[in-house]
Design brief:
With about 425 residues, the protein is mainly β. It has helices at about 20-30, 370; strands at about 35-40, 45-50, 55-65, 70-80, 85-90, 100-110, 115-125, 140-150, 155-165, 170-180, 190, 195-200, 205-210, 220-225, 230, 235, 240-245, 270, 280, 285-295, 315-325, 335-340, 350-355, 360-365, 380-385, 395-405, 405-410, 410-415. The protein has two helices and 28 strands.
């Protein structure tokens, strides 16, 4: 869909007010006549040649960066790509030292070294291929941004040169043209590229084009934002650069929409990441994390374990469970039982995570495999004398420790004296 008939946030290449969206630049890249890509399903590199002639003497370069910006792998490949064909360059030799989330930069150059195509991906490890939450760990990269203005034929033309001087990847740098005094957007605007990701020490230039008349006599202001983007403001008589403050998370409006947690309860039995099993209810009360299921048999011989099926589903990754509890009689408290089984890793030290209950850490670098004595073995950790917070909630937070992601299979909360 090129554009929507009314304000919308999905699918379209450009907004109803002519603001170009990231989809426009993604589609333009994907549809270029000669294109280099990672086949993410098969894990191999490909060159797509839609021209009627063979591409000969070309070079493909792949570089892989860890989350901290360090180079994990790079390689050059010779390319001969017949016309109207996808040419396979072979599987990527993924190194064993990759971080949980990492970045793949691809470049294709012709025989003279001219850049024909480039592509950029962020990828999670196969064990948790949908979990990109560690992107939140990226530190802010303050870009060097220089703008050269050269007007011609009634057009304001700006060459914006972006340089990443930091040690980490600068992800999804977004440029937007505004009027300096009013702060209003200039529309329409044409960008040679946008939503640009820069690896350490990389420099890219984006040309911005707008009608001089659309500036209304004001100075053009290029504002930047992105996933982890900062910029040092600068200004001359002809052009200015600044951070897009409105796009920063700290400036997002607080909506104040109330959250309903259901009626207060005096007991909880939740099958984390799965459906109702016996008296364990379907997964509820949580934010964050992903669900996963296995069919492997689970050893439930340990004390206090539940039915086998609850250990065949899990919620993994950073997540928080929040339950509204009934006040208990004086002298009573709740007992929390957390159910675990390691169904992914088959050695100690592969998964270590933390658990907080109402802000207090109760498990530190918890290793299910080590505690249970092996893979596919259920274990229950019990915590007595838990008092709800001042608002009546019990909050259970699971998050990463020394290795991989947190995981949980089921939760029980019961009155310590009644059960």
């Amino acid at each position: 869909m090129s554009n929507p008939a009314q304000p919308s946030f999905v699918w379209q290449l450009y907004h109803h007010d002519l603001e170009p969206n990231s989809a426009l630049f993604a589609v333009r890249s994907a549809c270029e006549p000669v294109h280099i890509q990672l086949n993410e399903k098969e894990g191999n590199l490909q060159v797509i040649n839609n021209l009627p002639t063979t591409l000969t003497g070309a070079k493909a370069h792949i570089s892989i960066y860890n989350l901290d910006g360090s180079m994990a792998y790079q390689n050059d490949l010779d390319v001969t790509a017949p016309p109207s064909l996808a040419t396979d360059l072979g599987a990527v030799a993924w190194p064993a030292t990759l971080s949980s989330v990492h970045f793949i930069k691809l470049e294709l150059r012709d025989a003279d070294g001219k850049l024909l195509s480039q592509n950029f991906y962020w990828r999670a490890l196969p064990e948790h291929q949908d979990d990109l939450t560690d992107l939140d760990k990226l530190q802010t990269v303050t870009l060097d941004a220089k703008v050269a203005r050269h007007d011609a034929d009634g057009k304001c033309l700006l060459d914006v040169t972006l340089h990443n001087p930091g040690p980490q990847v600068a992800l999804m740098t977004h440029l937007q043209l505004r009027r300096q005094k009013s702060g209003e957007r200039v529309l329409p605007v044409y960008y040679t590229d946008n939503y640009v990701s820069l690896v350490p020490n990389e420099t890219r230039t984006v040309t911005v084009e707008a009608a001089q008349s659309d500036l209304d006599g004001d100075v053009p202001l290029v504002v930047l934002d992105g996933w982890n983007i900062g910029v040092t403001p600068s200004s001359t008589a002809d052009v200015a650069v600044a951070l897009n403050e409105e796009a920063q998370v700290s400036n997002w409006p607080v909506m104040g929409i109330p959250v309903y947690y259901g009626p207060p309860s005096d007991h909880v039995k939740i099958n984390c990441g799965g459906p109702s099993i016996g008296d364990f209810q379907a997964d509820t009360g949580t934010t964050g994390g992903k669900t996963h299921a296995v069919t492997a048999s689970i050893d439930t011989s340990a004390p206090m374990t539940g039915p086998e099926a609850i250990y065949q589903t899990e919620r993994w990754g950073g997540n928080t469970y929040k339950f509204l509890m009934k006040p208990l009689p004086a002298g009573h408290a709740y007992t929390i039982r957390l159910h675990f089984a390691e169904t992914t890793f088959d050695a100690t030290g592969r998964r270590r995570f933390n658990v907080d209950i109402n802000g207090k850490k109760v498990l530190s670098d918890f290793d299910i495999f080590q505690e249970a004595g092996g893979k596919n073995k259920a274990i229950v950790k019990e915590f007595p004398n838990i008092i709800p917070d001042n608002e009546g909630f019990i909050v259970i937070r699971l998050y990463s420790g020394a290795a991989d992601k947190a995981t949980i299979n089921a939760i029980e909360i019961v009155d310590s004296d009644a059960h």
